[in-house]
């Protein structure tokens, strides 16, 4: 990767990935884009930033030409809970943006990354040690767009030789930018509320296991996957990745080691609970380990310690 364009750069992944890419590849080689332009974000003030609506193919093409990019990192998408509330918008944005980005990657021979998700699985998928290649019949619009994205990635690779790469991200936990409307968001909110109120009411029920990962591991793995030799990649679109399989009460116990009086209660949201129950408990990440050396550094204990420290530094 030498010159990289990123869409959705102000989102949960984008805001940390953009900063890291600028450190690794140089500020002049990272073109951050998003549909809005807040003046107080480092993503906007600390490097190249362009407003881009990913459904506007002409503008996207102008930027690819203007900056002569060689890599496309496409992050702009609606997350699972919002997509369930606005399924048509989710299809238009998630698929419209993706096909525009893939077409440009074909036309200009760009290396391409877009995230898939554990949401690409559904109730018929094996729940534990979910294999890399298995049944994918998701029951959410988010999942439908993610499976379609995986298939399109394979299609553009096989048909046109575009160097497409992807991972199925689990819930991502970060202290920098809040996620916008996902099913796994409880695992981020809980840390903020633990510090603010010493209590949290979870919208996901006790005993509901989902895969999760700390954002520093997610950012590292994107760079690692993108730098891996192409001929090593068999399961390109998309690799199972996860750092931990946890339920709300596991996070409760981990927080209580630092804040002994922290209290967790439950007020379950049927929509997000239904989505969570349609997803795996714990996915098998062997293919990612074997094909490009995936190896996350943070488990629940290490992540909890760092989350609480970083949030306190932010004045939460
Ligand atoms: C969501 O909950 O929608 C996302 C995801 C797992 O893709 N965090």
What does this structure look like?
Residues 4-241 form the NAD-dependent epimerase/dehydratase domain. One of its GO terms (molecular function) is L-threonine 3-dehydrogenase activity. Belongs to the NAD(P)-dependent epimerase/dehydratase family. The chain contains twelve helices and 16 strands. It is of the alpha/beta class and 316 residues long. The strands form five sheets. The protein has a six-stranded parallel sheet, with helices on both faces. A three-stranded parallel sheet has the order 6-9-13. Strand 1 (4-7), helix 1 (12-25) and strand 2 (30-34) form a beta-alpha-beta unit. Helix 1 (12-25) packs across helix 8 and helix 7 (186-197) runs parallel beside helix 9 (248-256). It is globular. The model has no long low-confidence stretch (mean pLDDT 97). The structure holds 2-amino-3-ketobutyric acid (AKB). 2-amino-3-ketobutyric acid is lined by residues 79-80, 117-119, 142, 169-171, 179, 182-184.
